[in-house]
Amino acid sequence: MTEPVSISLTVNGATHDLVVAPRKTLADVLREDLGLTGTHVGCEHGVCGACTILIDGAPARACLTYAVQMEGHELTTIEAVAKSGELTPLQRALTQVHGLQCGFCTPGIVLTFEVWLRDNPDPDEAGVREALSGNICRCTGYQNIVKAVLAAAAEMRRGAGA
Amino acid sequence: MTAAPFTQIGRALPRKEDARFLTGAGRYLDDIAPKGTLTASFVRAPHAHARILAINAEAARALPGVVGVFTGKDLALWTTNLRLAPPIEGLHPVEMTTLPIDKVRFHGDPVAVVVARDRYLAEDAAELVDVTYEVLPAITSAAAALAEGAALVDDALPDNLVSHQSFSAGNPLARQTEAARVVETQFDLHRHTHAPMETRGCLADWDRGREHLIMHIGTQAPHPMRSALASRLGLSENQVTVISPDIGGAFGQKIALYREELTVAALARHLARPVHWREDRLENLTAASHARETRCVTRAAVRADGRILGLELKLTEDFGAYCFYPANYMARVIAMILTGPYKIADYAFDVKVVLTNKCGNGPMRAPMAITSWVMEGTIDAVAHALRLDPLDVRRVNALGPADLPYRMATGELLEDITPLETLEAVVAAVGVPEFRARQKAALAEGRLLGLGFCSVVESTTYGSGFYKAAGIPGSGHEAAWVRIEPSGAVNASVGLMGSGQGYESPLAQAVAEGLGVMAEDVNVHMGNTDVAPYGMGSRGGRGATAGGGTLFLCAQKARDKVLAIAAGMLQINDTEGLRLFEGRVELMRGGAWEPTGLTLADVAKCAYLDPTNLPEGVDPGLDASLTYDPPPMTYSNATHACEIEIDRATGALRFDRYLVAEDCGTVLNPIVVQGQQQGAVAMGLSGALYEEVIYDATGQNLTATLADYTIASAVEMPNIELIAMHTPNRRTPAGIKGMAEGGIMGAIGVIAGAVNDALVPLGVSAQAMPFTPPRLRALIRSAGSGAPDIPRKERP
């Protein structure tokens, strides 16, 4: 498990050929081998949700995934979300209503809800809270995160309707 | 509730930090990785209390990629011990080595450190280090620590009672003989830990040529951290630079220089290589620092109308195994401010702090967290015993406007606070009679509804006068500089370091207000000890008053020079009638401000690039610096109220409503303040309801993952309704008071009040937190059986 192997990873649309130990987590490979440090490591046992990324468009824990498992999959990290430099409606709402403080859990929350809002365009508060329960935030008490997600949903519905 | 005539202070500006945090561009400790960096991993004790007989690291050293394995004996050659010996009566001096040499004192105590090429290898090697122990009896409770013949946690002390202070004002015993009733109440607050989302860590880089240490570390107090590092490494303070990157939460856990961090710094120097360490979550939960485990007993001597004639407090804190702070430091504040919003002249306390074989305590957001629960729980118990309305008992004891300023029995001075006003504000907002009707109707259906109130007087800014009076060396002052650069750009710095609060916008607002520019045009630089002036860092609720206040005053000093230069440029005799407003110099003419055509950039250009044209006596440049020592203490106040329902079958607790009326004076930025209020309440509730550090009888920590140390998720937390009040403090710059810890005090107190209100019909009361569903269910099932509250350690 410690002898490095060659793998190819597709991250944010780009393909990378890497040599990594099979036991190295996806979170560590993204951060250390690819320099994508926006994926944060909070617990390394799958509870806190800080390391949430998208695997083939679905949220997943990068700390519970080995990089060698990811050949042939499309990976998306926080660095790809506002790639053009313009924040998404969700990111804008998070800053407008103060839905983040230390920012350590924020990338995982942004990725979780960028996907969730696509599947749940008209959510209610209880639904947002349920979906958010996979991400621990130690700073905000969640209230403004929930408010931001609801505001972003409304904004996206307006955008879609226009 | 005075509206201050400010234009920059009080603006609801979004936070400057947000754009980088939202895009993954924040730079935290673990994101910094110079070439050739080695990684450290600590070997930790599997026992709560044991002698170290031998350490065999041969197998670990033989592993390819391992650079070395080091122990307490090595570190003793490179570092000095930590000795804490403030001259405080009843406080034993304590001393610890950088890593334990003779014995370990808690499950997780570091006994050796491995340095390797990467973290995976370092952890492999750490597992190969073979330590031989002789297991000693584990002290796992305050009662066991104080028992006759108890094993000593610290062999250098005569017993485990590391600190013991008592105090009496007036004559509380005499009041008991005069009283209609003496009501005794007990409060058990369990062991918590800070659990910031980003664990501790550091990156030490020794510049061999310059003989200079660069320490990258997320720290709330960069300069005190530098002092400690330099002192314990035998370096001068001009050989150490501390650089704090963005911090993923701290909550008091990132103030002291911990043993692991000093070890890493010493290793970087020894090996002349950058050495990195980031603890994992297990280490963070078991071995970073813990907090709170405190038992209080009050005895209130009361008149028939509920007026408290005298009050006694007995407090015992389980401090864990090591003192990174003077052991009396946290408990003392609880005892000092206990009476808070009430008029109680006859007051005595007895405060014991004991060592046990657990991870050492540190200040966790609101080190005095239990205070408001103890006081308000005492009031509720008095009301219950005398069959009075708890609100009436509060009113009959409350400090009203006519009582202020008020000198508490302990000597603390309360002024510019509004406890009665915040109480009445939430009482009105709740609609108490309507709630009681709902509660009665629900009870008829067998449902348990509860309503609690908790008033908070929060000690926020600790000035030097407070430390002096407490006998603790140190200062409460803060330092700042403000520079207008040749282009007119404004830079500023202060000794604070934020850990997520969002200092950059509100502190820019303080500078902008004092100087006369837009907050958007100010950059405040924090965290680098070569850039920032020596300040005392971020602790308590001092950020706004000490940090913002110092920056505000410093910016005013810079503004005075700007106006003096402007007066010269405008050929006016003095600066009377001149102001800088949004970066433009304006002149008062006929009762109105008029533009002069001069801007801050014009003045800066003259100051730096055309100094021969400066008015006589004015030096070139625009660079102001200033230090400021706040009053001995500032206070904010609040009242919390919440309505809950407890499910009789499961013990699950649901919030129906949560309100806070808070008066924290002038606020720099209401968005950031609101975030702090919500966050503090949530942290308090999460701790009161779900979180608990649990040790078994042998001292094994059973809550070493986030699946065991359970932090509330979005599903469990309520929305918080805020009623904002703003009575300025008369003694501080701009009337700032500070805040951000009181929410925890209020949350703990109000949830206890609401739970006990809900349990009244069952004839049981909850005196030990956390109020988890299994515990509440057990309490409900004990009703009628005569069984007392179940012991805290037996988690059903």
Tags for this model:
heterodimer, A: 162 residues, alpha+beta, Ubiquitin-like (UB roll), DNA polymerase, domain 1, 2 domains, 5 helices, globular, B: 796 residues, Aldehyde Oxidoreductase, domain 4, Aldehyde Oxidoreductase, domain 3, five-stranded mixed sheet, disordered C terminus, oxidoreductase (chain B), AldOxase/xan_DH_Mopterin-bd_sf (chain B), Xanthine dehydrogenase family protein molybdopterin-binding subunit (chain B)
Explain the overall architecture:
The complex is a heterodimer of chains A (162) and B (796). By secondary structure, chain A is α+β, with helices and mostly antiparallel strands. Chain A has 2 domains: 5-80, Ubiquitin-like (UB roll); 89-161, Orthogonal Bundle (DNA polymerase, domain 1), CATH 1.10.150.120. Chain A is built from 5 helices and 5 strands, in the order E-E-H-E-E-E-H-H-H-H. Chain A has helices at residues 26-33, 89-96, 106-119, 125-132, 143-161; strands spanning 5-11, 14-20, 52-55, 58-61, 74-76. Chain A has a 5-stranded mixed sheet with strand order 2-1-5-3-4, sandwiched between helices. In chain A, helix 2 (89-96) crosses helix 5 and helix 4 packs across helix 5 (143-161). The N and C termini of chain A lie far apart (53 Å). The model of chain A has no long low-confidence stretch (mean pLDDT 96). Chain B folds into 3 domains: 18-24 and 477-628, Aldehyde oxidase/xanthine dehydrogenase, molybdopterin binding domain (Aldehyde Oxidoreductase, domain 4, 2-Layer Sandwich); 32-136 and 197-250 and 254-287, Alpha-Beta Complex (Aldehyde Oxidoreductase, domain 3); 290-465 and 631-782, 2-Layer Sandwich (Aldehyde Oxidoreductase, domain 4), CATH 3.30.365. The two termini of chain B are 48 Å apart. Classes of the chains: A alpha+beta (162), B alpha+beta (796). Chains A and B meet through helix 2, helix 3, helix 4 and helix 5 of A and helix 1 and helix 19 of B. Chain B: Residues 23-137 form the Aldehyde oxidase/xanthine dehydrogenase a/b hammerhead domain. Chain B: This is Xanthine dehydrogenase family protein molybdopterin-binding subunit.
